[in-house]
Amino acid sequence: MPGLTPRDFSDIWAFVRVVDAGSFSEAARQMGTTKASISKAVARLEAALQVKLLNRSTRRIGLSEAGRDIHQHALRMVEEARAIESTAAGQQSGPGGTLRVSTSMAFGNAQLAALLPAFMARYPAVRVVLQLQDRYVDLVEEGIDVALRLSPKVDLMSAVARPVAPLNYVLAASPGYLEQYGVPADLAALHEHRCLTFGDSGPAGGWQFDVAGARLQFKPAAALAINSSQALREAMLGGAGIALLPTFVVGEDMRTGRAVHVLPALAPVGMFGTHVLAVYRENRFLPQKVRVFIDFVLEHFGEHPPWDAFLRRPASR
């Protein structure tokens, strides 16, 4: 018999959630993960115990005879773990331990990495592990404490998701490019310019704008397409053309004059959503290290992040 190991506790926790929730889908929603990962966890636990825990049908999930007995023991284990967590939360003098954070390559490089030294200085007992990746990250399977997600498709029911900063977008070009090719007067004039796009430029391969309550679409003939916001910024700064970029990537360039805000009356609709979201697993006793990190990010970003300062400048007369 393979037997249980300490790592199987997460599978026991998933088993209890499935029984309590009545379905794999609802358990996945409550734990902030996917139905497939919950199913794998229960399957691993059944393999370790060499018993069938659940009777599955197309309409319902029920406990097997062995599953009923094991569920009672598992439930007590989960309750004891929660009691330990509650005690630790009440007695811990300050945040500590390893904090695992995930975010996108562009946001991590442009904004988050520079913020971490100040966070670590304030909370020296917290060790930070920052993972940058441009893909969906399963918080449970990959052991992530908090993810700063930039996506229009974040399911707010799958975990706790807290907005920590708005996501704004602009059309940007270098002063040199505009000096050579001129400043476009309106959206139609962009047809005469070299446009730089992010990959396939999102839905239907076009740029979208909100103008006076209406949604306008413009399909650029991409002179250059790159699947990296940071690389797109470099090409724009080098004079390659006009790019649609998130302000967290290009805001500092706007502030210093390295880049120019093109057609500022337009409000581009970006492919990364409208907010940076701090996503973390639902937990009655949120660890101090997670709570202080989210508070710290809100303190430094918030409703008016520093990279959007150029948008708040008074118009010149």
Output the structural class: alpha/beta
What is the helix fraction of residues, given as a range? 25-40%
Average pLDDT score:
86
- CATH class bucket of the largest domain: Alpha Beta
Level-2 CATH architecture of the largest domain: 3-Layer(aba) Sandwich
Organism: Massilia aurea
Keywords: DNA-binding, Transcription, Transcription regulation
Domain HTH lysR-type: 7-64
InterPro entries: LysR-type_TF_proteobact-type (IPR058163), LysR_HTH_N (IPR000847), LysR_subst-bd (IPR005119), WH-like_DNA-bd_sf (IPR036388), WH_DNA-bd_sf (IPR036390)
Description of the molecule:
This protein has 9 helices and 15 strands. The chain has helices spanning 9-21, 24-31, 35-49, 65-91, 105-122, 175-181, 229-237, 247-256, 288-300; strands spanning 54-56, 61-63, 97-103, 126-132, 146-149, 160-166, 169-173, 195-198, 207-211, 214-218, 222-226, 242-246, 260-262, 267-269, 275-280. The longest helix is centred in the N-terminal third of the chain and has 27 residues, at 65-91. It is 38% helix and 23% strand. The relative contact order is 0.15. With 317 residues, the chain is of the alpha/beta class. The strands form 4 sheets. It has a 5-stranded mixed beta sheet with strand order 4-3-5-15-6, with helices on one face. The protein is elongated and about 75 Å long. The model has no long low-confidence stretch (mean pLDDT 86). Helix 1 (9-21) crosses helix 2, helix 1 (9-21) packs across helix 4 (65-91) and helix 2 (24-31) crosses helix 3. It folds into 3 domains: 6-91, Winged helix-like DNA-binding domain superfamily/Winged helix DNA-binding domain (Arc Repressor Mutant, subunit A), CATH 1.10.10.10; 97-162 and 274-295, D-Maltodextrin-Binding Protein, domain 2 (3-Layer(aba) Sandwich), CATH 3.40.190; 169-269, D-Maltodextrin-Binding Protein, domain 2.
